[in-house]
Amino acid sequence: MERMKTQAGRQLSLLKVKKKWLLPASCSFFFVLSVLMTGCFLWQYYLPKLKTGSLGPEVTSAPVRMCPQHPEPVPLAHPLPVLKEALEKVDRILRQALFAPGLAAMSAVVIHNDTVLWTGNFGKKNGSDPASGPPNEYTMYRISSVSKIFPVLMLYRLWEEGTVASLDDPLERYASAFTINNPLGMTSAPQQKSLVDGLEEVGPAPRPSPVTLRRMASQLSGLPRRLRSTSLLWRGSTQEALSLLKDDVLVADPGTRCHYSTLAFSLLAHVLAAHTVQGDYQRWILEKVLEPLGMADTGFDLTPSVRARLAVGFYGSGRPAPLYNLGWYRPSGQMYSTAADLAKLAMVLLGGGPQRLLRPD
Ligand SMILES: *[C@@H]1O[C@H](CO)[C@@H](O)[C@H](O)[C@H]1NC(C)=O
Ligand SMILES: *[C@@H]1O[C@H](CO)[C@@H](O)[C@H](O)[C@H]1NC(C)=O
C-alpha cells in the first residue's frame, strides 16, 4: 500500500515535471512551426513569380479549350483480365456504397463504345418491403438533377440548327423581357472571363457581363438558385418568372464563379422551347431526343405505369420520399429513366454506334 502511494507520488511529481516542460516545449515547437510555415509561404510566393517571368508571355496567351473533351475508345482485345479486375472493383465499390443512409436501390451499367460490358443491380426495388426483389437495369429511377443534361442538349442542337446564333448570346436575345440587377457591375478582367468560358478574348473594353446561354448551361450564369419566394413546386409561367427576375439580383458576376442554379436550367429550357416548332420543352425533348434514341423508358410524367416500375426513393433519414411534381422547374429535375436508357444516351454522346444526336466537332 505504502509503496503504491510513493510510486503514485513519484509519478505525480514526474507528471508535474513533465507539465513544467510542456509549456516551453510546445511554445518552441509552435515557434519553429510558424517559422517553417512562413518560410514555405515566402518560398511559394516567390516561386511562381520567377517562373512566369522566365517563361514569357506565350504561356498566358494560349486559349484554354475546356469542353467537350472525352477519351477516344480504343478497341478491346480479348481476353481482358485487367477489365475483369476493374469491373470487380466497381462491383465492390457500389456494394459498399449501398450502406449509405437512404440508399436502398442502385443500378449501374458500364459501356464501351456501343456495347454494354457490365450491369450491376444492388439492394431492393422497394427498400421498405422485405419481400421486394432487387432492381434491374429496366427499373425506373427519378434522375433528379441528371435531368439538367437535356436542356443542355437542346441548346447545342438548336445552335447546330441555327435557331441559336451563338452559345455566347445573351439570354435577352431570346427573351426580350429578361433583366436582372447585377450589383457586381462591370467586368474588370476580360482576360480572366475568356479563360473561364474557354473562348478567345472578346476585347479589352469593360462592359457589363451578360447572362449568356453557355453560362446558364454550365452553372456560371450568376443567376440565383431559384426564383425569389418560390419553392421547387412553383406552378408559374415563364412570363411570371421573367417579371420576378426584374426585381432580383445576380449572386455572382456572370462567367466568374460557379453557382448552382436550378432556375438557370429551367429558364434556358422554357425560353429556348418557345423558339421551336414544338413550342414546349417536354415535347421537344420527346420528339428530338427520347424517341430518336429509343429511350422509351425515360420521361417526365409519373403515370401509374411508371410508378409501378419506379424504385422507391428515401431521404437520408430513411423516410420514403414523396413523388413531387416540380411544375415550372420540371426541366431541372423532374425526369425518370432507367440505367439501360441512360446507357443508350451515354453511348450516343460518346460517339459509339451509328446514331448521332449532335454533329462531331
Ligand atoms: C465502335 O463501334 C462501331 C460500330 O459498331 C465500330 O465500327 C467501331 O470499330 C467500334 N470502335 C471501337 C474502338 O471498338
Ligand atoms: C413499398 O413497401 C411498403 C411496405 O410493404 C408499402 O407500404 C409501399 O406501398 C411500397 N411502395 C411501393 C411504391 O410499392
Automatic annotation (TrEMBL):
Protein's name according to its UniProt entry: Beta-lactamase-related domain-containing protein
Record key words, sorted: Membrane, Transmembrane, Transmembrane helix
Entry's family note: Belongs to the beta-lactamase family.
Protein species of origin: Cervus elaphus hippelaphus (European red deer)
Keyword Transcription assigned: no
Bilayer-crossing regions: 21-46
Lineage, highest ranks first: Eukaryota, Metazoa, Chordata, Craniata, Vertebrata
Segments forming domain Beta-lactamase-related: 90-352
Pfam families xref list: Beta-lactamase
Superkingdom of the organism of origin: Eukaryota
Matching InterPro entries: Beta-lactam-related, Beta-lactam/transpept-like, Beta-lactamase-like_AB/R
